[in-house]
Amino acid sequence: MPPLLPPSTIGILGGGQLGRMLALEARRSGYRVAIYTDEPQGCPAGQFADIEINASYDDPAALERFLSQVDVVTAEFENIPDACLQAVEAMKPLRPGRKAIYTTQHREREKLFLRENGIACAEFRIVETLAQLEAAVAELGRPCVIKTAAFGYDGKGQAKVNADTDLTTAWKPFEGHHAVVEQWVPFVCEVSVVGARSVDGRMAVHGVVENQHAHHILDVTIAPARVSPEVVDQAMELWEAVAVGLDYVGTMAVELFVTAEGHVMVNEVAPRPHNSGHYTIDACVTNQFQQQMRAICGLSLGDPTQHTPAVMVNLLGDVWPSEHVHPDWAPVLNHPRAKLHLYGKASARAKRKMGHYTVLGGSIEEALEAVEQVRAEHSSLRG
Ligand code: AMP
Prior knowledge:
This protein is α+β, with helices and mostly antiparallel strands. The chain folds into 3 domains: 9-94, Rossmann fold, CATH 3.40.50.20; 123-183, ATP-grasp fold, A domain (Dna Ligase, domain 1, 2-Layer Sandwich); 187-382, ATP-grasp fold, B domain (D-amino Acid Aminotransferase, Chain A, domain 1), CATH 3.30.470.20. It has helices at 17-28, 60-67, 82-91, 98-104, 107-116, 130-140, 167-171, 229-245, 280-283, 288-296, 330-333, 364-377; strands spanning 9-13, 32-37, 51-54, 72-75, 124-127, 144-148, 158-161, 179-183, 187-197, 203-214, 217-223, 250-259, 264-270, 310-316, 338-342, 353-360. An 8-stranded antiparallel beta sheet has the order 13-12-9-10-11-14-16-15. Strand 1 (9-13), helix 1 and strand 2 form a beta-alpha-beta unit. Helix 1 (17-28) crosses helix 10 (288-296) and helix 2 (60-67) packs parallel to helix 3 (82-91). The radius of gyration is 21 Å and the shape is globular. It starts with 8 loop residues before the first strand and ends in a 6-residue tail after the last helix. The mean pLDDT is 96. The structure holds adenosine monophosphate. Adenosine monophosphate (AMP) binds at residues 122, 145, 147, 153, 155, 182, 184-185, 190, 213, 216, 255, 267-268.
């Protein structure tokens, strides 16, 4: 298939901020954008789309209407019913393909994929019953962590098993489901790698970045990560192994743990652009959304080089004074090296990702200092 050039139509499954930022990038270059979402009209991505279809992912008629209007389809989130993925793939190129989305939307399938491909990750067992949990904990040792196999993110559906945890009680929320029990990794830092793979298998990877979480949700990304060159090499190699193993096309993120001994292992794979890659919009020659656009349209990838050190800070609904009252954005907007990105969400809720800002610096230290300055000027932005 020849590359899709503007004004071809890019179809996006999902209507959130990742779809919005892809839509912005695609429309800038003259592509048309169609959003398919089960959210109401006017969703974050729909605000920048030519076409917005609001229907369930199980609605074949609506899906067909969407597919008849697009040239290629991508997804901005992974929890898409398999029947929908199959219907899309039967009619239009789906990039990344069903294999990548189906594997990574489910922790059990993802973990088995990593194990089968010899990709370093925390040791784990799959369990379905309390007896299996007891056996797994005995084998893996404490502490360990129980995670739901399906549809978990940002620490949801997880329970840590400590020395004194009663397994019967811990198992209750998981009863009747598959779960993954993972050995606890005493990591010294969490990093991630975002990159893209083209239709012809070429890869362009942004560097390794350092992620700090608050309440299991990404709070700050420091780019580049303050890690050794050996850690960088391992992280990049792991990203490539995952991308090749999944026959990946598009932008993909891999979250990793770094141990005190300098070992790197995969925590999670996201088959899409990632929150920890938002800094690329302001700090890289080609950002993660433009790479996604290029890759899914069958074009060659752009230069992923980071030109300026950057720190990205997430803005959750928690910093909104109330549901419909915005914080005072002056401290961010007045800063000469800060860039504000808001996602156009109708109302703010606790823990909801509402936006982010990126601060550029001559060095990481300078960017971190600037973030402190912005936060000090407006204490409500502290989160
Ligand atoms: P996840 O949803 O799997 O990315 O987990 C959310 C967060 O929980 C991670 O970013 C880690 O901070 C922590 N976590 C998850 N799994 C482990 C593990 N096996 N060992 C240590 N910390 C973990």
